[in-house]
What does this fold into?
Amino acid sequence: MARISSGIFNKWLTNYGSAWEEGDPQKAADLFSEEACYQVTPFADPIEGRESIQGYWQAGPASSHKDASFSYSIISVRGNEGIAHWQVNFRRTDSNNFVEMDGILVAEFDDSGSCTDFKEWWHRREIEHDDPKD
It folds into this structure.
């Protein structure tokens, strides 16, 4: 079993946050192993494989969000698993609505530091913008 350090997990989370802020699906996908499993909520079917993860990100942050700001705090690192609390704020490109998301993620890693299994639980609050042209 792979072991990760707090430093490795911190670097991974920093890169994950950059993918959010830049809306970069390739940068997000590069954080995962070729056969990774990515589950966005407990009730969603897992997204399987790096290519599918990239497609999910292309349909989400890359095409529908702007002005994202990501932050996180590490809760635990043990063995090959890291747990973090994360928050992201952004504007929707179609409506200019402001969105706040707050969640927990659990990530498992291989020997190379790529995520092999990713699960997250989150809540979202969306504040309508009066005039999407602003």
